[in-house]
Amino acid sequence: MKVIKSASYDGLDSIVVDVEATFTRGLPSFTIVGMISTSISESKDRVKSALLTNEFKFPPLKITVNLSPSDINKKGTHFDLAIALQIAFHDDKSIKFNDIFVFGELSLNGVIKDSNSIFAIVLSLAKQGLIKEVLVCEDSAKKLQNIPNIKIYVIKNIIDAIEFFKTDDKSRFLFQKNELEYENININNEKFYFKKEFTEDYSDVLGQDMAKFASMIAVAGNHNIIFEGSPGCGKSMITKRMQHIMPPVNLEEILEKAKLQSLDLSQVEFSPKRTFRSPHHSSTKSSIFGGGSTTAKMGEIALSNGGILFFDELPHFSKSVLEALREPLEDNKILISRVNTKVMYDTKFLFVGAMNPCPCGNLLSSANECRCNEAEIQRYKNRLSEPFLDRIDLYVVMNDTYNDNKNKVSSEELFNNVLKAFKIQKLRGQKELNGKLSDLDIKKYCKLDNESQVIMDKAIQNYKLSFRSINKVLKVARTIADINDNRLITKADLLQSLSYRRR
């Protein structure tokens, strides 16, 4: 019995699926088995129409197609092509499918189409080292070309697919890959890509020098940050511009972002521009962390991995959401458990929160009078618990911008500083940026000079810093030292880091 290789998605990893078929005497019928979804069940009509419209005779036999292993749920329209090929070659024993993986949705006239899940499936197979060659349509090939170490063959329709397996010379079907055409830097024989496109520029933000510098530190080291200030002082403006000065990304990160976009059923793009997700404060816990009654689905937290997760009007998010955020902020991963699945997501995002100083927003305003009493202000502040705030690296209080200064800074200037700090971190041998360093890496990379060590000891005693707070201060100081091109953390670096702690 001939077997065609395909695959299905199960949580965050792909599983190899063998498409098998038997043709026996009996009343003509066409059945697909193997814990299939409705989308696969409907492929019977697509396959039959595609073969008949291309002058193939549908065999008058009892046809049973099995998708093995049969104990795992499978879904997706990409099995169409593999099923059609099994039927087209049902009486040809000379055909060998070998280990070429076959993916493609069939239109009723036999043209092969791309589907959203193909890229994510092939990327996962490639990471597991399970795939060497793949047969897809051109639209799929354009997405897959950036995945290293796989050979891609392209066909347009069912006729091409049949000819592909009949011919010995498959070179004319081979897809010619194109390199990513973005600016890049080479560090330790690895390329990191970036795009200087500042559609929203920091030069548009009036004043707020401290907040601008803090946002640059947050981006350079991937540190969590909260902006507190009156309405209109520039919290959201600064946050939206942070995306454009984010550090470069390697090919693996670009592919991971594209994979998440594919699973989110959104447009896949292979751009070094990092993700920016901004859920509304009325969003449910399931939409943010992932949900589903039987199978785990991704939420905003997983989709923002490697990018920015922005919570505007932070205290208005539900208490359950804010408290559940503590684990992904600390461990950089989250486990979503459902009846049939348990899925672990990476959550190495940069968290940005923006909030008013009080319910009416005018507590820090120099022009408007605050209408809140002490109890209302305290109740508002208490929506953010101490354990949650302890996971924030930088806390910036912003004043009014009415007294504008002329010290304007552009996004390009800030990005150049971020790029400099990024190079230093990577040349130091760090796998993660400073904000995501482990306790062991903190001891290795966040070294203080003698003067700053004395100040750190005094700060621990005077401010009663927790172990987590000490690590946060050291990691922020390390990023500031990188921006200032200091090998060791100096007194000035440490004092600036301490100034960004919440009072």
From TrEMBL:
<dbReference type="InterPro" id="IPR000523">
    <property type="entry name" value="Mg_chelatse_chII-like_cat_dom"/>
</dbReference>
<dbReference type="Pfam" id="PF01078">
    <property type="entry name" value="Mg_chelatase"/>
</dbReference>
<protein>
    <submittedName>
        <fullName>Magnesium chelatase-related protein</fullName>
    </submittedName>
</protein>
<dbReference type="InterPro" id="IPR020568">
    <property type="entry name" value="Ribosomal_Su5_D2-typ_SF"/>
</dbReference>
<dbReference type="InterPro" id="IPR025943">
    <property type="entry name" value="Sigma_54_int_dom_ATP-bd_2"/>
</dbReference>
<dbReference type="GO" id="GO:0005524">
    <property type="term" value="F:ATP binding"/>
</dbReference>
<dbReference type="InterPro" id="IPR027417">
    <property type="entry name" value="P-loop_NTPase"/>
</dbReference>
<dbReference type="Pfam" id="PF13541">
    <property type="entry name" value="ChlI"/>
</dbReference>
<dbReference type="InterPro" id="IPR014721">
    <property type="entry name" value="Ribsml_uS5_D2-typ_fold_subgr"/>
</dbReference>
<dbReference type="InterPro" id="IPR025158">
    <property type="entry name" value="Mg_chelat-rel_C"/>
</dbReference>
<dbReference type="InterPro" id="IPR004482">
    <property type="entry name" value="Mg_chelat-rel"/>
</dbReference>
<dbReference type="Pfam" id="PF13335">
    <property type="entry name" value="Mg_chelatase_C"/>
</dbReference>
<dbReference type="InterPro" id="IPR045006">
    <property type="entry name" value="CHLI-like"/>
</dbReference>
